[in-house]
Amino acid sequence: MSGRAVLLADRFRMEYRILKAVSSYFDDIHIIGTGDGAWLKHSRHCYAFHDLGKPFALAGPSEASAIDRYAKDHQISCILPTCGHTTRFLATYPDRFETPCFPVPAGEAFDLLNNKLTFHRLCRDLELPVPGTKLFETWSELRAAAATGELSYPFIVKPTNLDGGWGVRRINGPEDLRGRIAYSPILVQDFIPGRDLCVFYLCERGKITGQVAYTFARHGIRFVRRPNVDAFSRVVAAHLRLDGVIGFDLRERTDGQVFFIESNPRFWFRMDVMALAGLDFVRAALTKEPLGKGLADGLELRNRGRLFKAAVLPWRLNWLERRVILELARDPLLPLLEMLGRTKPAGPPLPRDQTIVTIPANVTPY
Q: What is the DSSP-derived secondary structure letter of residue 355?
């Protein structure tokens, strides 16, 4: 471990996983945030919690200067983001921090990658494979296009500027168009049969220095290797001279053809698991050490619910699942409260009738 860190957080679910990932490297972790991020003070990994007073989506240069003063007062060696808003905050005000910050993409590159429409256009310009994509300003315009045959079922609708799956919906036929969608503009993409593929990279000045990839198994995730996707991703990293962590969501057909769907220029939900697996993105970025050779192709990790059920027969767990169980036992309070529904999510669940799709007030667009 090495020194003290400040972690910026104003939500809980993903941020808690990031806290655990960061704890594998730093001795003491101070959390600066607000809102649901306050739950993190109950973790054994949190040394102190300081309320920022406003969400990072609304924070400006004065908050950046205040965070830097806090870091100096507490001998902090590094300031790290957690989500998209905190990453963009660090990218927007680099001149306000004398305390070292975790490397993040430049502000212009972040905005380009974090918007689904501009990312699609970037991939198209770089001749990377993408699904057919159209943009509509209103739900009425979209319905009219579907009625004239301009859109082919099934297709996917989504906002351009939200993460976490908010507002994403598959339209299978005309019956799914009877409701409405309460956001604008509306991005429409062809549905690609196949499976989801997630890849994440550590970048330094436009070069990829480490990576991990996985697909979704029946009850969890399955680690894979995709050299073809790595080659495509190197084009993006070099073009934007990326620093820090960058992720891509793709669809992979049964014939192996892949399509870039969206980009996540930030930390992600499973970083704590990667650290347990020996792929410590935080340590590698800060020490310039190699990230590691990656995980065996085909290794699976069950989701938390299935993992708890399987733990009664521990000899059936693989080595990574045993590490995850042991880590949960080291910091049990918040996982238990989360399973009981006591911790607040980023927003209320979507209604069962998804013909009406709205975005909760506490889910902030970029």
A: T
Indicate the pTM of the whole model.
0.90
Which tokens in the block code for residue 37? 């991020």
Beta-carbon count within 10 A of 170 CB? 13
Q: Dump pLDDT digits (tens) for 311-339.
A: 888 889 999 999 999 998 888 888 887 87
Angle (CA) 339 307 268, round 5°: 70
- Where among 283, 302, 321 does a domain terminate? 302
- What is the domain extent for residue 255? 195-302
pLDDT 10s digits, 62-110: 999 999 999 999 999 999 999 999 999 999 999 999 999 999 999 999 9
| β-pair partners for 210 | 202
Q: What is the CATH number of the domain that holds 180?
A: 3.30.1490.20
Q: Which helix (H) or strand (E) holds 156?
A: strand 155-158
SS3 state at 335: helix
**123: exposed, middle or buried (C-beta count within 10 Å: 0-12, 13-18, 19+)?**
buried
Q: What is the mean pLDDT of the chain?
A: 90
Residue 351: pLDDT band with limits 50, 70, 90: very low
DSSP state of 295: P
Domain end position, chosen among 282, 302, 322 = 302
String of DSSP letters for 18-50 = HHHHHHTT-SEEEEEE-GGGGGGGGSTT-SEEE
**CB contact set of 220 (below 8 Å; sequence gap of 6+):** 300, 301, 302, 303, 306, 307
Backbone angles phi, psi at 88, to 5 degrees: -65, -35
Task: Give the C-alpha separation, 329 to 327, whole Å.
Answer: 5
DSSP string, 61-124: HHHHHHHHHHHHHTT--EEE--SHHHHHHHHH-GGG--S-B-----HHHHHHHHSHHHHHHHHH
